[in-house]
């Protein structure tokens, strides 16, 4: 069945057109501002819901290009695909250079070694990006388990020569921010303490024996050690065997490799504003993915949402007041090099970046709108939310907009906005072989795409600018574990959530 037939909902369109409340001023048209706003909403939200274009694009990206880790041939293929796609959409696009790390996965396996207490078995593991390899024969060592960096520090010399198992009890998406530091900084801390290897329990909200990879980093002067994620199931088994007393030994073989840095690109595209083309509304997502699965939720979904927003806005006459600029960032997952390269290359323009959005929490349905702006932001944005009512997203959420690729824009006080998506299943698949197209629901993707298209238009069209947020007291850390999705806000009130049109 085509995505289009799943998505189209006449009832939704009727309620969209009947949406109450509109801004006092807005779209330039001979009609009243309110009518003009509703007409524009119909022309953006309608096609996003009914044409299935974002879904078709996501299918192309995931099925014909697949996983696209920085430095790989497929990452380069994704760059070319994005350029071709923008061209086909009538949106002017170009590349901007980015030097990226080039880490590759090799052979990898883990083994719980038999003892007098238990039989041996294989362990489901996956090297963390940035891990060192083991020697070809692997490393064999006793496991010591900790659940925090403080616990690791307290062990002192007892870490020497061991494989450190970082355990935690991630249950819900909100836990990701709480435990991602174990993956990001744990291996470096363990290496410093003399460990020979690291296993990190996968950062997952569900598991069918699926390891979840992700980036790790080693501090200056610390020699990287072999570091892998292990499935929730195997981490719990190791935990039980350790808790019942006696040594637990594992063998790890990791064939990963750090190659010389590679040349790559951000893809940038633009729809020029009609009245204030020098003012830029940036909408971004990351084009790279991990090297497993096909990066469908992370972040193919975000990529096609912002591309589709640009395609739909580009075909409107008149164009919105300000310029809409799409940035498909390279290397969010294991370096944020694209984000830094963009901020450096466009430093002089950042004061004219009047709003920025990053979509990087998967292809779930929209829950509401997030902002990060100075005083009065909510009042400015609220009159533009009406067209999101039928999508169940006409709510300003208390959580702040942001994103890893936008973090270099924070010191420049760029206001931020976002459409928060339902990420309740996101961490079931995140960074695994299972992050594939079949996990994305076409209806949800279309609804979030519609919300992104409309909010982008609103930001580019609203008469006044968002007040810039206060400068942070210290520069944000750009080397923190990347791919941070922090759906940290409490469950949002959802107004008028639509029933998913079923087949
Ligand atoms: Zn991501």
Automatic annotation (TrEMBL):
Task: Show the GO cellular component annotation of the record.
Answer: extracellular region; lysosome
Query: Quaternary structure?
Result: Homodimer. The monomeric form is inactive while the homodimer is active.
Q: What is this protein called?
A: Carboxypeptidase Q
Any one Gene Ontology molecular-function term assigned to this protein's record: aminopeptidase activity
Primary localisation category: endoplasmic reticulum
GO biological process: one example? proteolysis
Reading the lineage from the top rank, the first entry is Bacteria
- State the InterPro entries in the record: CPQ, Peptidase_M28
Question: Where located?
Answer: Endoplasmic reticulum; Golgi apparatus; Lysosome; Secreted
Lineage, top ranks? Bacteria, Pseudomonadati, Myxococcota, Myxococcia, Myxococcales
Species annotation? Hyalangium minutum
**Mind listing the UniProt keywords for this protein, alphabetically?**
Aminopeptidase, Carboxypeptidase, Endoplasmic reticulum, Glycoprotein, Golgi apparatus, Hydrolase, Lysosome, Metal-binding, Metalloprotease, Protease, Secreted, Signal, Zinc, Zymogen
UniProt biased composition (Low complexity) = 487-503
Signal sequence range? 1-18
Check the record and name the Gene3D superfamilies matching this protein: 3.50.30.30, Zn peptidases
Q: Which Pfam families does the annotation name?
A: Peptidase_M28
> What range(s) does the Peptidase M28 domain occupy?
266-453
Chain spans, region Disordered: 473-503
Keyword Oxidoreductase attached: no
Tell whether Protein biosynthesis is among the UniProt keywords.
no
